[in-house]
Write a structure and sequence with these properties.
about 40% helix, four-stranded parallel sheet, Rossmann fold, globular
């Protein structure tokens, strides 16, 4: 058999190369990232992590143990600009510094991102000190998130939860229900902005309308994570990326202290 000569070329991601570790049950974040990063010059490599049918402190703890193996299954010879762990509640309970250590121990990347750190960076970029929170989850998952924001120096005067434990249902929560919950939270005069927590919630199509109705910024997990990855790498977001956040540069990191891991 004749071996035909060939040449090697550069990476697919000439603008940026991203890795994304997605929960096994998450149906939303990949679809959102395709919308938020439409450029053909951005390479996006995705792997799944076992996450359980229900999101609880116990299943999140197991994700922490599984995270290095999931990261290691991303292409090892790729020079990643950013690798992200796509779980807001998971990062809250595992801890952002621990997530970084686990990912960087499994592959080489310039940056590690996750929705919690991205959201805190978004709050800093928008000069926010008080936020309202909409969460899909049970109290044992939503409560620690509120405590984390408060420990970081933010006030959370209003919190609404759908009280859902089954992840398959979270992806099916109607955007109209998310919209209605955000309107109620955003009506609180003590709230400067609304945060829609969870990478599995379908939020992109309601952000712009909510901002017009309540006159305040609306930030979601996937929007904040994509914005943060774009700013860390220099990659372009879609021209129609929703929300006032997407036009903001990265600000100095929030000076609040996160809880110890």
């Amino acid at each position: 058999m004749q071996h035909f000569p060939y040449q090697l070329t550069g990476p697919i991601g000439s603008a940026a190369t991203f890795g994304l570790i997605v929960l096994q049950v998450d149906e939303t974040i990949e679809q959102d990232f395709r919308r938020l990063f439409p450029s053909r010059d951005i390479a996006l490599y995705v792997n799944r992590i076992p996450s359980g049918a229900a999101l609880t402190p116990e299943t999140i703890a197991q994700m922490g143990r599984d995270l290095p193996a999931a990261a290691a299954l991303l292409p090892q010879r790729v020079a990643f600009d950013v690798v992200a762990y796509g779980c807001t509640s998971g990062t809250t309970l595992i801890g952002p510094d621990r997530v970084t250590d686990l990912v960087q121990g499994a592959l080489t990347t310039r940056h590690v991102a996750q929705p919690l750190g991205a959201t805190l960076a978004a709050f800093a970029a928008l000069d926010l000190t008080s936020i309202g929170l909409v969460s899909p989850y049970i109290d044992s998952v939503s409560g620690p998130m509120r405590q984390t924001f408060e420990t970081a120096g933010l006030q959370v005067p209003s919190l609404l939860s759908f009280g859902e434990e089954v992840e398959a249902n979270v992806a099916r929560i109607d955007p109209a229900s998310i919209h209605a919950a955000a309107l109620q939270v955003g009506a609180d005069p003590l709230v400067q902005a609304v945060f829609l927590s969870c990478t599995n919630l379908r939020t992109l199509d309601v952000i712009d309308d909510l901002e017009q109705r309540i006159g305040k910024p609306v930030i979601s997990s996937n929007q904040a994570l994509a914005w943060h990855m774009a700013r860390l790498s220099g990659a372009p977001l879609a021209a129609d990326a929703p929300g006032v956040l997407t036009s903001k540069p990265l600000a100095r990191p929030h000076q609040g202290v996160l809880p110890p891991i």
